[in-house]
User: What shape does this take?
Amino acid sequence: MTTPVASSHTAGPALPPLPALLTGQTAIVTGGNSGIGAAVALALAQAGANVAINYVVGDDAANNLAAQLTGLGILAKAYKADVSSEDQVAAMFASVIADFGTVDILVANAGLQRDAAFTQMTLAQWNTVLGINLTGQFLCAREAVKEFLRRGVVPERSRAAGKIICMSSVHQVIPWAGHVNYATSKGGIHMMMESLAQELAPQRIRVNAIAPGAIRTPINTEAWSTQEAYDRLMTLVPYGRIGEPEDIGQVAAWLASDHADYVVGTTIFVDGGMTLYPGFATNG
Ligand code: NAP
Assistant: This one.
């Protein structure tokens, strides 16, 4: 295996935002107060969208981000709701539609890990991860689709009646010992996304997924916060740097825009090559 360049390779200076491709549209970003979700919320706002920031615990982070995004000249507001609760999800969508008028984009991003060796894994750990990561996306997607179908295409805003982006993971294809609940939830998202995309494409609803690799967020601090851990992580990343939340935000903004209008039912891997079997880089 080649020697990784480790932390000497960074993402570099901030990129200019994409053009305002989402002006006048409203997006809900679940788990939008932290990590990847916060970067997606920012990128969508920079692209001109109004943003509803969903969260469940972190009130301050959600409200602060809403204030920051409002400063960009769009509408932004925080909505507390547990995405694994049918009632709370329905109430959140009703509030967002009352406040913003409609919903054009859902980024179903909320997710967590509850790791354990398989025989130690409790039913509660299994159900929590499946309930939030997978059922949460189902519940949010269902409410979004009802609104997309009610409203239909508004050509001045978008060629599509609505866009759903499911936040998956490289673990929709890479098995992950010690994280069976998490990998199962992401494998489920993969097939849910493709089946939904197939069912809804005739209604001009685009459903896609983003599968991040290792992104620097609170979910995986132990994988990047020490040099030793970072170096170990880099053996899995051919591109030689950790992903930053902005790497996902920019892809999400493009994928939600009409520049991606013919992208339907696809998973975009944003992983620095993690899914390229790096162990085979030196002939296996
Ligand atoms: P994070 O910083 O820990 O963010 C997780 C977000 O999910 C938080 O905003 C959290 O809100 C929210 N959340 C958790 N339970 C919720 C619930 N029941 N209802 C509503 N929101 C809930 O982690 P992240 O890395 O940004 O993860 C975001 C997504 O990316 C997840 O789906 C994760 O699986 C996926 N992903 C991450 C990586 C990575 O390397 N970071 C790689 C692949 C995929 P509170 O703060 O209010 O609890």
In short: Strands lie at 26-29, 50-55, 76-80, 105-108, 162-167, 205-212, 267-270. The longest strand covers residues 205-212. The chain has seven helices and seven strands. Helices lie at 35-46, 59-70, 86-100, 123-151, 180-200, 227-234, 245-256.
